[in-house]
Amino acid sequence: MLRxxxxxxxxxxxISAALLAGVVTAPAQAEWxxxxxxxxxxxxxxxxxxxxxxxxxxxxxxxxxxxKQPIIVVNKSGASGAEGIMDVKDAKGDPHKLMxxxxxxxxxxxxxxxxxxxxDLNPVAMIALDEFLLWVNSETPYKTPKEYLAAVKAAAPGxxxxxxxxxxxxxxxxxxxxxxxxxxKFTYIPxxxxxxxxxxxxxxxxxxxxxxxxxNIAQWRAGQVRALCVFSENHMIYxxxxxxxxxxxDIPTCKESGVDVVYQMLxxxxxxxxxxxxxxxxxxxxxxKVIATPDWQDYLAKQALxxxxxxxxxxxxxxxxxxxxxxKLMNEAGFAHKK
Length: 339
Description:
This protein is 42% helix and 18% strand. It is an alpha/beta fold. The protein has 2 domains: 162 residues, Bordetella uptake gene, domain 1 (D-Maltodextrin-Binding Protein, domain 2, 3-Layer(aba) Sandwich), CATH 3.40.190; 118 residues, Periplasmic binding protein-like II (D-Maltodextrin-Binding Protein, domain 2). It is globular and about 65 Å long.
């Protein structure tokens, strides 16, 4: 459009040229970028699935130089994760804090009346869905979920111990669902993270856990624990052998094994309240670059995560639906805080 105007108005060339020079030389508005180290807040203990994911992303960003500023991973697991969640909520307008999110963003406020709702934060993106499995020590005789739950049912209530991350959260919810199926009751023992629950299972201090794949993979590969079933509608897709005999895809679903319990958990990220659209866009794009790397695809396969990327309105829609689902589960389990 500028060329025809210049040709038709030769006498106005000095003015037009000046304007054109202004257009050409005016600096484009720079995209927002972090100006200091990014703190990824993990509201869970070291060694658990959320911690592992945060540190994997930290390594991928560094390796591929996806961001100029460094990343620091900080575990804030106090009060079943409330410490980390409230830390990010209170960091209003700070774009240098990014929280790893999982279902505690719903269950914790419902359970203890924590003054928090996921809408208090700024949703960035979801990058995966995580599975849960029923695990036992490999030295036990149980080869199927039916065999194990039959033993639980035959024993006095409270005889069998189930370990899990936190209290009145996803692991505890699944445990209560299993209680209803057996008509008996596990003694539920909460830990700070899945890493601790895995160690306790190997040491036979508990009889089972419902850890994510990433939290028990080392012990499974070492032959110390046995996966009985996955709490999913479908088999996991990863067919590469993890143990000598099994891949993730070889593990039956709990549902097809006669245990009708299904549960998956989001893996997402949130910024503090008061952060801007540009800042959300920066981190959503950063995470998209991360999940496009071969390193992330390898991580997904090894940890048996379901590849799922959502941002913007799609992510919010998922959160609303997932919140309603957890509200139902929490009330059915009797975990909802009474006002």
